[in-house]
Each structure stands twice: as C-alpha cells, then as structure tokens.
Amino acid sequence: MKYLRQFGIILLITFLGEVLNRFIPLPIPASIYGLVLLFLCLCCKVVRVEDIRETANLLIEIMQPMFIPAAVGLMVSWDVIRPHLAAYIVITVLSTFLVFLVSGHVTQAVQQLKRKEGGKDGIS
To answer: How many CB atoms are closer than 10 A to CB 118?
Structure first.
C-alpha cells in the first residue's frame, strides 16, 4: 500500500505538470514542469523525501529499460540518420563538454557561496 501512495503522489505531480503544459504557452515539456513542481514541493516541505523515496528509487532502477523503445526507433530510422551522423556526433560531444563546463562552474560558485556563509567544506 505504501508504494501505491508514493506512486500516486508522483503521478499527481506529473499530472499537474501536464496541466501546466496545457495552460502555459511556453515550449517547455510537461515533464520539466513536473520536475520543477516536485522540486518546489520538496523544498517547501509539501512533500517529504520519505513520502516518495522507495518508489522514486524503483523508478530510477528501471529507467534503463525505458530507453529501449527510443533505441529501437533510432535503429529503424538509421537510413535518415546515417547521412548526418558526423554532425550528430560533433553536436553530442560539444554539448556534453559544454554541460560539463557549465556544471563545474555552477558547482564551484555554489561551494564558494556556502563557504562565505560559514560552511567548512562548502558541502552540506
């Protein structure tokens, strides 16, 4: 019963993300709205981590098989992808390094802010 309750909370927040996607005319996927809502609910303590921990862990564990249909879709469209494969590889590598760079700078900035606030190692 605990898992059903936890899954219900996650589904409710996902549904609210879908509703926001319908009514806010921005090109943002509903899943992003749902993630932001869940983050805000966790920050404001509307939802506690303990309220969804087990089901969230289960969903993370089964995430890899969820990508199988997407991979099969790529294999089916190989004829369309093949002529542009070099461009896809270059874009993937460059965007990956850009994400690494931005993430590193953001992490350093957050750690410096924590140190200024009085934290020992910047991590709490």
So the answer is: 6
